[in-house]
Amino acid sequence: MRIQLPHAWPADAAEAVAIQDRLRPLADHTGPGPAAPALLAGLDVAYAGDGGTDDLLAAAVVVLDARTLEVVEQATAVGRATFPYVPGLFAFRELPVLIEALKSLEHTPDVMLCDGQGFAHPRRFGLACHLGVLTGLPTAGVAKTPFTGGYDPAALGTRRGASADLTDGGERVGRALRTQDGVKPVYVSTGHAIDLDTACRLTLAAAPAYRLPQTTRLADRLSRDALKAATG
DNA sequence: GCGACAG
DNA sequence: ATCTTGTCGC
Question: Does the keyword Metal-binding apply (predicted)?
């Protein structure tokens, strides 16, 4: 797919925050998004380093048949970090190499599931929102741990499909979603061009057997393999 | 002021 | 994210 990283890239945290504030209004959180997507994409990045600016990064994108969850296409890209890891500015670290991997994709996914937050972010503009705005494609964030916001554990059922609102400052920012019976929930939030119900429904459909959706699992494995191949 | 903090 | 053995449980 053809996409381009913005020419201007932040030199520091203040500039990065300014960019998030400027792009935030462009994210659509009402959807409805793809009701029956044919292609799901999963993205992840593996690192070799301490979280600093010279870490080696390996990005991976997997495109799955939404119905069978079989791999249709996959791509990787390796590069150096352009930004240190800063909570809340996570996207500036991973986006460049993720975009590179996406460029070599022949298929255009109907929705992309990101490893991290979307709207459930201190400035309501997590990685999934950023990637959605840059690509124009529907995106959702599926994080392994919560970031901004909290939920009432007592309100979260123990069975697969159970969920509880993630709220932050009285605002609903996402949902804690149980993808397997008795397993820790994942934290879903909207990225762009999708609504929370659809994001949760697709996440659940992509996670028929394990806690994490197959998109995330395969992208995670592919990114590690790519990093290992680049490192030796 | 202090602690917490997606990956 | 990454560093990592054994171990509890189905």
Answer: yes
Give me A226's structure tokens.
């790519």
Q: How far is the CA of A25 from the C1' of C4 (A)?
A: 43
CA A43 / C1′ C3 distance in Å? 23
Strands A39-48 and A56-65: antiparallel
Footprint of strand B on the protein (CB under 7 A): A 44-45, 47, 51, 85, 87-91, 115-117, 121, 126-128, 141, 143-147
Tell me if A210 is assigned to some domain.
yes
pLDDT value for A207: 97
Question: What is the tally of structural domains in chain A?
Answer: 1
Positions of chain A with pLDDT lower than 70, given as ranges: 7
Token output for A73: 């296409």
CA distance A62 to A60: 7
**CATH code where residue A146 lies:** 3.30.2170.10
- The answer to whether A19 and A11 are in contact (CB under 8 A) is no
Plot region of A111 (φ>0 → left; ψ -120 to 50 → alpha; else → beta): beta
Q: pLDDT at position A7, please?
A: 62
Whether the Cβ atoms of residue A110 and residue A39 lie closer than 8 Å to each other: yes
